[in-house]
């Protein structure tokens, strides 16, 4: 970088600086760019659809923007999916979810429904499937956490969130994502099974 700094400039883009090594960070000027607002995404969706000759209702644009989690790329893909699904657009039409999101939800439901070594082996295969389709490991663990918390009691949610943060941190430090994802699932299974058994014992006595 120092060798060519007189003749060229490098622009590096990333979603998180946690994996950027210190020597690179020390040689760069970090500029943090916040995610676009809901209004910004609505404006961009409207402009894109206008150029394509597709009238986009503002209600639908706002619903897409909110469901995308302020992720512009995801919002554009969701808008494209809506176009394939139905034309002309209507304000109340369904917004399709990505296949991998549905697959992740099914994986979380499978974790909650049964906690056995055989089920853990099956979940490992599903996690591999997500990773081989280029779904980032941190997105997988965040998605699993969100779905698993929906099935947890209030007193269990804090422990599960803390556990997810621990394994997400280890995920950033390690090289093999599957190890940390599987460890998180195994730990959750053990915690959830114990919680359910304790609850049943309390009901019996």
State the major sheet.
none
CATH class of the largest domain: Mainly Alpha
* Secondary structural class: mainly alpha
Number of DSSP helical runs:
9
GO molecular function: DNA binding; DNA clamp loader activity
Organism: Micrurus corallinus
Pfam families: RCF1-5-like_lid, RFC_C
Protein name: Replication factor C subunit 3
Produce a short descriptive summary.
By secondary structure, the chain is mainly α.
SSE blueprint:
Layout: H1 22-26, H2 38-51, H3 58-67, H4 72-85, H5 99-113, H6 117-132, H7 137-149, H8 154-173, H9 177-204
Helix pairs in contact: 2-3, 3-4, 5-6, 5-7, 6-9, 7-8, 8-9
What does it look like?
The protein is built from nine helices and no strands. The chain is mostly helical and 205 residues long. It folds into two domains: 38-85; 99-197, Zinc Finger, Delta Prime, domain 3. It starts with 21 loop residues before the first helix and ends with a helix.
What features would you highlight for this structure?
single chain, 205 residues, mainly alpha, Zinc Finger, Delta Prime, domain 3, 2 domains, 66% helix, flat
